[in-house]
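Let's sit down with a protein and look at its sequence and fold side by side. Once you have written the record down, we can walk along the chain together.
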Amino acid sequence: MEFVSIRIITGDVARLVDFYEHATAVRADRAGEDFAELRTASATVAIASTRTVGVFAPGSASEAANRSVIIEFLVDDVDEVHRNLTGLVAEVVTEPTTMPWGNRSLLLRDPEGNLVNFFTPVTPAAIAKFAR
């Protein structure tokens, strides 16, 4: 088995795609106004409109309702990501902070309210864990 993607349902695909393109510096592949994908080396963030829910499973998902998942991105410099997003993010949950497990993390909410964690390993053990 291979983890391939996470899909975010939104009422405003363009707004959410713009946010993730800016935050990740990854250009999205847009398949019309209802669907886009941002592909990284390890997984894809798919962004779909609420209209797509009716196609695959009516009533099964809704926008801005997640309170249990954190979307995480391994980045080269979390402090640079923080500087890049200053003024563009409505809610920074935790400023860049070095966590006890060795990652320096920035936790914020995307425009749909989903938690997003950008992190950089900074201790030898964390660096070894995520060595590419």
About this structure: The CA atoms of residues 83 and 96 lie 10 Å apart. The longest strand covers residues 91-98.
